[in-house]
């Protein structure tokens, strides 16, 4: 899978479509969804995406679904309540089609959902399925990032802002639209900007900046003394790269990791098992599986053995992994593949940035002292924030916080300098 992560929380924000120039197609969700309900909708969309426009219904093992989302696998009451909330939630869109004609529509988020014989079956309305199948929605889905969030408001704000990371700003939203995006429309308490700012905006902004790969800054527009509109300035989080240093726990150096890889277990799944269960427990289940002889699927068998704590028995063969266990592994592996793609993309971007900064260092070395001083003063004057200016004064042209601005600055001075 691509580095996309399919968070249907994307329904809560504006979507850009390449076929409509300068148009933001807004798909909004009404109603109040909890954090787990948002994550549930994401997993349902991930499971259905490939057949979203070709199949009328979709299905997934109910215990697998609950486990992936974070519910107790036996807590079907909560699962039923969450599915009911999704079916009662309204999605509304207002956009231009490929011919430039205005299109407005409304649909329930799920047209139906049912639990029967341990299977969750569900469907989307045909019109909404077409909107959700837009590749740009799929490209925004990031299961890895959503795991970091502990509040639905923070996750909703992240998804609405992330779509605009390349433009650097969400553009102005009326407070009415913003309340709708956050799921607090209709609340008299949040009609007060003071309450909205204290209970929704500030905590959500703090969580986005702490837990995600972007940093956002709110700005407000007033009419008289009253705040009427809000927008968010967006930039990449320079600290996130530090948190994403690969294999910080050194798992790849362990013998159990190498043994798992030899059984066909993916890099990320192997490291996750070691982190979750510990080296000794994983090695015990690996030895147990090897003692059973040939198995149909090493990954599926090990997943079941770790989950259900398989123990040696007198029977010559242990039971085969259940279809539910195999399905859980399939979906988890899909998430791992997405994260692998994201990692390799970030790695390539970091390598390209390092190459360009080396070019900058070479360009600077060729300048005389007077030119160097003038270059520094000119670049500092182009920076907007005190943090960026202070970081540059400390680290000079090696400032990681200002890497993008440094490259852009020298691209203007030496247009062909960064050509391969």
Radius of gyration, CA atoms, in whole angstroms: 25 Å
Beta strand % = 5-15%
Calculate the mean pLDDT score and round it. 78
How many β-strand stretches? 10
Major sheet strand order: 1-2-4-5
The helix/strand class is alpha+beta
DSSP summary: helix tally: 18
The helix/strand order is: EEHEHHEEEEHHHHEHHEEHHHHHHHHH
User: What portion of residues is helical?
Assistant: 40-55%
Count of separate structural domains: 4
Shape: globular
Q: Which assembly state applies to the chains in this document?
A: single chain
User: Main β-sheet: number of strands, strand sense, barrel status?
Assistant: 4 strands, antiparallel
Uncertain runs with pLDDT below 50, 5 residues or more?
1-26, 137-141, 241-248
Alpha-carbon distance between the two ends: 30 Å
Family: Belongs to the initiator RepB protein family.
Organism: Parasedimentitalea huanghaiensis
Pfam family, one: Rep3_C
Protein name: RepB family plasmid replication initiator protein
